[in-house]
Amino acid sequence: MRLPSLSSSRIIRALRAAGFTEAPDRGKGSHRAFVRSRLGERTRLVIVPYGHDIPRGTLRAILEQAGLTRDEFLRLLDG
């Protein structure tokens, strides 16, 4: 299944479900920054353009930054 083109709001909800929180003092203007720190893993910083639909290529880059597979992300969208 191909990745859909999604709104930034749906992507942000899925990132929050994966344990990301809004990064303090980041994400000014048209982008939002999210961070996740887990014991034994490196800290992940994800930048999401805010306020419009996100193209598939940009979504793939967001998933790579987040360390999520396509299947993990699609499950987060459904859950």
Provide keyphrases for this structure.
79 residues, alpha+beta, Metal Transport, Frataxin, Chain A, three-stranded antiparallel sheet, two-stranded antiparallel sheet, 3 helices, 23% strand, globular
Question: What would you say this structure looks like, in words?
Answer:
The chain has 79 residues and is α+β, with helices and mostly antiparallel strands. The chain has a single domain, classed as Metal Transport, Frataxin, Chain A, CATH 3.30.920.30. It contains three helices and five strands, in the order βαββββαα. The strands form two sheets. It has a three-stranded antiparallel β-sheet with strand order 2-3-4. It has a two-stranded antiparallel sheet with strand order 1-5. A hairpin with a 7-residue loop joins strand 3 and strand 4. The protein starts with 5 loop residues before the first strand and ends with a helix.
| Number of DSSP helical runs | 3
What's the CATH superfamily, by name? Hypothetical protein
> What is the CATH domain class?
Alpha Beta
Shape: globular
Q: Might you state the CATH topology name?
A: Metal Transport, Frataxin, Chain A
How is the biggest beta sheet arranged? 3 strands, antiparallel
> What's the helix-strand series?
EHEEEEHH
Mean pLDDT: 89
User: What helical percentage do the residues reach?
Assistant: 25-40%
Going by CATH, the architecture would be 2-Layer Sandwich
**Count of DSSP strands:** 5
The value of Rg in angstroms is 12 Å
The tally of domains stands at 1
Beta-strand percentage? 15-25%
Structural class given helices, strands, pairing?
alpha+beta
